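Q: My labmate handed me this sequence with no annotations at all. I'd like to see what the chain might look like in three dimensions before we decide whether it's worth expressing. Could you predict it?
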Amino acid sequence: MPIFEYKCGKCGHKTEFLEKADSGQKHTCEKCGSDDMKKLFSTFSAGSGSKSSGSDSCPTGTCPLN
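A: Here is what I predict for the chain of 66 residues:
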């Protein structure tokens, strides 16, 4: 299951939830208790322990492959 990031519309607190992409599940802010949680758009992350190919030597992503 993917992890989705949400932001509270009332207090601005951000949090992540593990859920199915099409679940339609409602979430409550763990900080203020509001149910005004908005799903945020995010980019793919390889994770903190992984490195994407060429990211260290080619920060622009337009460098030729080795």
